[in-house]
From TrEMBL:
Pfam families the UniProt entry points to: Methyltransf_32
Domain of life, source organism: Eukaryota
The protein, known as: Methyltransferase domain-containing protein
Record InterPro entries: Methyltranfer_dom, METTL25, SAM-dependent_MTases_sf
Species, as recorded: Polarella glacialis (Dinoflagellate)
Residue ranges annotated for the Methyltransferase domain, each copy included: 22-159
C-alpha cells in the first residue's frame, strides 16, 4: 500500500534546535506521520522509542509535539551524553524525555526495553540496524500480542557500515522473499546509498578523480575491483588530481606517480567521464527499486508475524533521496 505524498514544507524550529533545513523537514514528517497513522488510532500509543537517536533532534521534537513519553536509544555513550546535555540546555529535560545507552545489534537488547503500546521509530538506521529493529519488533509483538509495539522507520545505507555490516549478497529476511529468491548483491545495495553516483552528493570533480585513480592503480598492478565507488577518496584531503594521486599511492606504500603515469591516468579519466556520467543517471532509478525491494521484504517479514504494514514516501527527496517509510502496527 502506498500512502499519500509527503508534505512540502517544515514548521520545525530550525534556528532554535540548530539543525539544517533538510533534517528539520525529516523530523516534521515523522511528527505528521505519527499523528496521522498512529496517534489518533483506536489503540493509540503510550510511548515513543527512537532507535539510533544520536544527539536527540527527532526525540526532542516528538516529545514536544506529541506530549508523550519519548525515549532515545543510541549505542554511542558520547551521543547519549550529548543528547542529555542538549535537552538540559534547551530546558526540555523532564520525566517524559530521556536518553539511554542501548546497542540494538545485540540480540534482545531492544526487546527488553519495549513496553505494551510502544511506537518504535527510526530515522535512517544504517545497514543491518534496520533488520535488527524489525526483528526486535517481531519478537516483542509475539510476546505482547494485543498491545504489540508499532513501527515507523526510514532506512538508509542498505549496503551496510563497518559497525552495521550487511551480508554480501543480502538474503531475504521474510519467508516470502526467500521463496521468491530475493537476493541482493552489495553492488545493487550501493545504488541505494545516500551518496551514490548520480545523487546530489557526487560531483564532477570527484568522478574524474576516481576514474583517474582507478587507471593509475591499474598501471601499478593494483586493481580496484568492480565497484564504481572505488577507489575511495576519503582521507586523501583536498587538492588537484596530482595531489590526490600522490596521496593515494602513498597510502598504499607505493612510490609517487611519474609524469607519464599522471598523463595516462588523466587522459583515461577524460575519455571515460562522459560515459560514466550518462550511466550514472540510472543510479537513482536503480536505487529507488532496491530501496523498495528491501522495504517490501522487511514489511513482509512483519506481516508474517501478524502485523499490518504499509509503505509510503515520508518526505520530499530534497530532504533525502532515502525517504521510503515502513509503517507497521
Amino acid at each position: 500500500m502506498l500512502l499519500t505524498a509527503p508534505p512540502e514544507a517544515s514548521n520545525f524550529p530550525v534556528q532554535a534546535f540548530r539543525v539544517k533545513q533538510k533534517k528539520a523537514d525529516q523530523v516534521t514528517a515523522f511528527v505528521r506521520a505519527i499523528r496521522a497513522s498512529f496517534y489518533l488510532s483506536p489503540s493509540g500509543i503510550r510511548r515513543v522509542v527512537d532507535v539510533g537517536s544520536g544527539m536527540g533532534t527527532l526525540t526532542r521534537e516528538l516529545q514536544h509535539q506529541l506530549g508523550l513519553e519519548v525515549i532515545g536509544l543510541d549505542r554511542d555513550p558520547l551521543l547519549v551524553a550529548g543528547a542529555k546535555k542538549m535537552a538540559d540546555k534547551l530546558g526540555l529535560s523532564s520525566r517524559s524525555l530521556s536518553f539511554e545507552l542501548c546497542d540494538v545489534r545485540h540480540s534482545g537488547a531492544l526487546v527488553e526495553l519495549l513496553r505494551p503500546g510502544d511506537l518504535v521509530v527510526g530515522l535512517h538506521p544504517c545497514g543491518s540496524l534496520g533488520e535488527d529493529v524489525v526483528a526486535a519488533v517481531k519478537v516483542a509483538g509475539a510476546e505482547l500480542r494485543s498491545q504489540k509495539p508499532s513501527l515507523l522507520m526510514v532506512s538508509c545505507c542498505l549496503h551496510g557500515k563497518a559497525w552495521a555490516p550487511v551480508a554480501n549478497p543480502r538474503p531475504a529476511c521474510s519467508q516470502l522473499g526467500q521463496e521468491l529468491g530475493l537476493v541482493l548483491p552489495r553492488e545493487a545495495l550501493e545504488k541505494a546509498n545516500l551518496w551514490a553516483p548520480g545523487s546530489s552528493g557526487a560531483t564532477l570533480g570527484s568522478a574524474f578523480a576516481r576514474l583517474g585513480l582507478r587507471r593509475l592503480l591499474e598501471l601499478r598492478g593494483e586493481p580496484c575491483g568492480p565497484s564504481p565507488q572505488a577507489p575511495s577518496l576519503r582521507g586523501l584531503g583536498r587538492g588537484d588530481f596530482q595531489f590526490l594521486a600522490r596521496q593515494a599511492l602513498e597510502r598504499r606504500g607505493l612510490p609517487p606517480p611519474t609524469a607519464s603515469e599522471l598523463a595516462a591516468a588523466e587522459q583515461a579519466a577524460a575519455v571515460q567521464l562522459p560515459v560514466f556520467r550518462r550511466l550514472e543517471l540510472l543510479t537513482p532509478l536503480v536505487g529507488d527499486v532496491v530501496e523498495l525491494a528491501v522495504s517490501l521484504d522487511r514489511a513482509a517479514a512483519l506481516e508474517e508475524s501478524g502485523y499490518d504494514s504499509a509503505l509510503g514516501r515520508l518526505f520530499q527527496s530534497s530532504a533525502s533521496p532515502r525517504n521510503l517509510a515502513i509503517y507497521a502496527g
